[in-house]
Design goal:
Layout: H1 15-56, H2 68-77, H3 79-103, H4 112-127, E1 137-147, E2 151-159, E3 170-172, H5 183-193, E4 199-203, H6 212-221, H7 226-231, E5 238-246, E6 249-258, H8 276-303
Antiparallel strand pairs: 1-2, 1-6, 2-3, 4-5, 5-6
Helix pairs in contact: 1-3, 4-8
Length: 304
């Protein structure tokens, strides 16, 4: 049956595959940028070094120590081979850089320290500081992961704060069926690709009442599969999601969530408030919206 958002029950057929692949691909978030920038440069430096050694290795009219003479004699007597090797290494460096750019294209690897700083800033500006240990505020950046044999999904790149450091949450996405786009980040991705908006606020019932009906309603309204619900450590009550674009394409989704249902004002932003309290809530709502919009722009600059 459809959930509160008019979407049929969530489907995540390749959850286990996405879960474990995402753990592996998270390593590229940390090492891919280094590989892309460094490996080909090392090879290019080696090429230049070999070419530079050839004319310098001529043993005539120069003094060579007993240690360096055998090396110089060998390089000079094989100078044509060394020139060919240098050209080969140069071509290898070019091919490796091309391959790494294909594996880690623009936007696939990001500066995690800069991302973490933006997430910490937007989380604090959006929610403030928790008033008790029972309240959780989070800002999380998801990115689109794609592998030909595993399809597409959204996996965590970074999250604000020092709690919940395990980034093992994954949501399914599909270009063909919204039922295969799970969680609010999946629905946000789907609607952005359908041209139906790039920002949304979602609310969920309290699943901690002990009532099975409330837990079922939380899962249905949150568009979660049974496994995703089970793996969700914080059962947040309110979500604000916004797509992140890179070169015109949806790169990922920024999500802010809290288990405090009042942390985002529950109102119709298009309605004109009549009371002073209502005007303050609208002001707060718009400030939060502006904050996540600015954060999305900052993240786009980091990614590109």
């Amino acid at each position: 049956m459809p959930n509160a958002n008019g979407i049929h029950a969530a489907i995540h057929e390749k959850y286990s595959r996405h879960y474990y692949l995402n753990l592996v691909l998270q390593l590229t978030d940390r090492t891919g940028l280094w590989l892309t920038k460094r490996v080909s440069r090392v090879l290019q430096f080696s090429t230049a070094g070999l070419l530079g050694l050839i004319p310098l290795s001529d043993p005539k009219d120069q003094w060579l120590s007993a240690i360096s003479r055998p090396t110089a004699d060998f390089i000079w007597s094989h100078r044509f081979d060394f020139a060919l090797w240098s050209i080969g290494i140069g071509l290898l460096a070019w091919a490796l850089e091309w391959a790494l750019n294909k594996i880690f294209p623009t936007g696939s690897v990001v500066d995690l320290e800069k991302v973490q700083k933006v997430l910490d800033e937007v989380c604090l500006a959006h929610f403030g500081r928790p008033t008790s240990d029972q309240i959780t505020y989070r800002a999380t950046l998801f990115k689109v992961r794609t592998i030909w044999f595993a399809g597409m999904w959204l996996g965590i790149v970074a999250r604000s704060g020092n709690l919940y450091r395990r980034h093992d949450t994954v949501f399914s996405i599909s270009t063909e069926d919204s039922a295969h786009c799970t969680g609010f980040v999946g629905l946000c991705w789907w609607r952005a690709n359908q041209g139906s908006g790039e920002h949304a606020v979602y609310r969920l019932p309290d699943p901690n009442t002990g009532d099975q009906k409330d837990m079922l309603q939380y899962r249905l309204d949150g568009h979660l599969t049974d496994k995703e619900y089970e793996m969700t450590k914080v059962k947040s009550r309110v979500f604000r999601v916004c797509v992140i674009r890179c070169k015109g394409r949806v790169w990922g989704v920024l999500a802010l969530d809290s288990n405090d249902a009042n942390s985002i004002p529950d109102l119709d932003p298009s309605a004109e408030p009549q009371s002073a309290e209502g005007k303050l809530l609208v002001q707060r709502y718009n400030q939060q919206l502006q904050g996540i919009t600015v954060a999305a722009e900052k993240l786009t600059l980091i990614i590109e």
